[in-house]
Amino acid sequence: MNTTITRTLAATAALTIGLTLAGCSTNNAGSSDNSSSSSSSSSSTHNDQDVTFTQGMLPHHKQAIEMSDMLLAKGSDVDPDVVTLAKQIKAEQAPEIKTMTGWLKAWGEPTEMSSMSGMDHSSMSGGMMSDADMNALDSASPADAGKLFLQQMVEHHTSAVDMAKTEVDKGKNTDAVAMAKSIVSSQTEQISQMKDMLASM
Question: In the predicted model, what is the mean pLDDT of residues 54-67?
Fold first, then answer.
């Protein structure tokens, strides 16, 4: 009888040890999977769409800031609501320019599109103001500049929203997609605001 008990205890102990080892193995595998998953979602993971979006949005943002600076340089005779909007646009887009430049450098990509001076310029940077548009804003009187700024910025923002929506749909980098979603939200709201302001002028 003692032999039977001893064998039973030994079998139970072996089963317990086996289950414990299996549990450790499962936990280790899970830990490895989590680590791998975390690594794959790092900010360095990107695709061609992320690069296209970032390279296209950089000059777009820079021009929006240039337009805002032109308006703000005209002094106190400009509509104060438009001045407030121009300052908001600068505050939002200047940090994004720095962030996007950092992404491209981290990805080992140029900060400008290779096709910027080629035939793809209009399709890749739709909504960009022409030199004539910029000159018109620069030379406008303070009284007229507010309305012209709004008209141009509605077009400018609309193209930025389109670019951002494409990034949300096709981008891979989590940070770039998050910025694109933010651009869609903030600039769609500003477009509505600007159209209301134009309607009241």
Answer: 97
